[in-house]
Each structure stands twice: as C-alpha cells, then as structure tokens.
Sequence to fold (184 residues):
Amino acid sequence: MMSNWTYIVLLGAVVAVASLFLPRKQQEREAKDTRNMEIALEQFMENTELDHQELVKLVSALREEGKQQADANKQRMTELENKSMLLEQQLAFLQQQRQNDLLQAAQTMPVSGMAKAAPAADQPTIVDQEPEQPVSGIQLRYPDLFDFYRQGKSIEAIAKKLNMNKGEVQLILQLAKQEEKAYV
Fold:
C-alpha cells in the first residue's frame, strides 16, 4: 500500500502537469484571437485603402471637370464680351445714322416761322401742341399715336385704339420728348 506521502506526491505531480497544459491552451487561444484580430485589421486596412483610392480618383475627376467648366465659362465670357462690343458698335452706328436721318428729315420739312413768331390774337395758344415744330423720326413712325395724343386722349385710350400696351405708348411718347430736346 502506498503511503500518504506517495498520494500527496502523485497528486502534486498531476496538478503540476495539469497546470502546464492549462496555460498553453489559454496562450494558444490568445494567440489565435490575436491572429484573428490581425487578419480583421489587415482586411479593414485593405478596404480603407481601396476606398481611399476611389475617392482620390473621384476628386481628381471632379477637379478636372471643374477646370473644364471654368475654361468653357471663360471662353463663353470672352465670346459674350466680344458680341457685346460688336453690338455696342452697331448701336452707336445706328444711333449716328438715325440722327443723320432725323436731321435730313428736319431739314426737308417746311417750318412755318410766322406761326411761331406771332400767334393770332383770337386763336388760343396750346402749350403742349406745337404743330409747326419739325416732326421727329419717331413721330413719323407713329402718326396716329401722336394725333390722338395731341387731341388730348389718355394713354389708356390711345393704347386701346391702337392695340398697344400702355407701357409701349408711354415709351414712344418719352422717346419723342427726348428727340425734341435733342433738336432744341
């Protein structure tokens, strides 16, 4: 029979052997978990790198597109400025030509100087109406409008009779006044 000491020694040996195996299993699990974490982090980093590369490509494409749009806008702006200058030159030419035409028309129209100098004593003078003035170019274009206006018709009535807008009638009257001021 074995002695108590032998049992104690055997029990100690079993505990010692068991203690050696238990930490190895725990160390193996920790190592396996660490390896799994490393693999997961590597995959995450690869995915992040791919996303980063896609973003860089997208930003580059957007930057290039923005540059192309800016160049196109700059070119369009230059074209519009050139067209604007051309239209301003044409407008100046047409205004000069119109003034020349109006001067010619004014010179060829007979002007009754006596009516201006001495109105008849029994004839009332009308401040707004001066038929002896040379007729401006715009008055030649719209004779009905100016006839109605001289008769004292309202702008609304003139617009209705001539199928025009009130704003258009007002504009024509203002242009005629400006032409008269230019000749005075």
